[in-house]
Amino acid sequence: MKGRILSGMRPTGQLHLGHLVGALQNWVNMQNEYECFYMVADWHALMSEYNNSENISKFGVDNVIDWIACGVDPEKNTIFIQSAVPEHTELHMVLSCITPLGWLERCPTYKEQLKELEQKEINTYAFLGYPVLQTADIILYKANVVPVGEDQLPHLELAREIVRRFHFIFKREIFPEPAAKLTQAPRLLGLDSRKMSKSYGNYISLSEKPEDVRKKIMTMITDPARIKRTDKGHPDVCNVFSYYKIFAPEKSAGVEIACKEAQIGCTDCKKNLADIIISILQPVYEKRRKLTENPEKIHEILRNGADKARKIAIETMKEVRYTALGK
Ligand code: TRP
Ligand code: SF4
Asked: What is the pLDDT of residues 289-309, one digit of tens each?
């Protein structure tokens, strides 16, 4: 039997190239090997966006369009929206009963996020419990594998601890301990070489128009020591070069030499990169356009996904109710 995967994304904005190389390409690669559940984590989005929540569902649908446009196959995978399956919040409540506060307060992601998002007032009851809802997401489907980036590892560790505690307290083992599948996603920096982030606006979205892709790439900072066209470059300190390594690895050796020998200027080097990115996004645009022209199709995919997910979720909750309440 195939392993089961659950993964999710918070619908807090448009998806960009960072999501493509950081998550979506992995999702696509896993869809043949595993039974995959891909979820729009809209309740998780609400935890940080409750002050401007009016776009959460619009972003959710838009993100799903991007997932599919990037190759996530709705026939092979179960694609759904978290809030369409109410059992997530129900299981979250049960897990909340057994999760010690200290585990959550100690969680490194919690401490970091609080600092980073100070202006967002996320010092709330729900936000502390973010990993508890995430655990519910995973074990509701008895997923045994969760693809995660390095930053999510503490959440997976917590999920396993919560599962063990559930079994210990209620004296019945009903969940697999979910294993983290560390995806070796390359870390894509923003166009300005800072961390790629919505608040910096330093990214290329998956629906960016070709002419805007070009404009944005032309603003990228290159090797600061390369002032004249004849100066030899240092690709290892150039963000443009790091994009080559990720998006056109087969060309990067050539670019490296040409740069070090000053055979190519930065303007041309960036023009070529823009061509590469545009050609990667071309099929995504086309699929996106077809999907946006037919919104009923997306809604049907999401309805089917929620139905499939919910069948499993209801069964799990029966077991949970029986195990925790004896009924
Ligand atoms: N926390 C994840 C993120 O920020 C989103 C998420 C919610 C998730 N539930 C999940 C990821 C369950 C994996 C499994 O990206
Ligand atoms: Fe960067 Fe290319 Fe310029 Fe070299 S030639 S510094 S790799 S942009």
From this structure: 999 999 999 999 999 999 999
| Tens digits of residue pLDDT in 44-95 | 999 989 999 999 999 999 999 999 999 999 999 999 999 999 999 999 999 9
Ligand 1: centre distance to CA 69 (Å): 21
Question: Helix, strand or coil for residue 107?
Answer: coil
Strands 78-81 and 4-9: unpaired
CATH number assigned to the domain covering 4-188+295-325: 3.40.50.620
Cα-to-centroid distance, 133 and ligand 1 (Å): 9
Closest Cα partner for 146 from 267, 312, 34? 34
The number of the ligand 1 atom at minimal distance from the alpha carbon of 134 is 9
Instruction: Note the pTM of the prediction, 2 decimals.
Output: 0.94
Q: Where are the domains of the chain?
A: 4-188+295-325, 210-288
Candidates 1.10.240.10, 3.20.20.30, 1.10.630.10, 3.40.50.150; correct CATH number of 210-288?
Answer: 1.10.240.10
CA-proximal residue: ligand 1, atom 13 (nearest): 7
> Closest ligand 2 atom, CA of 241?
7
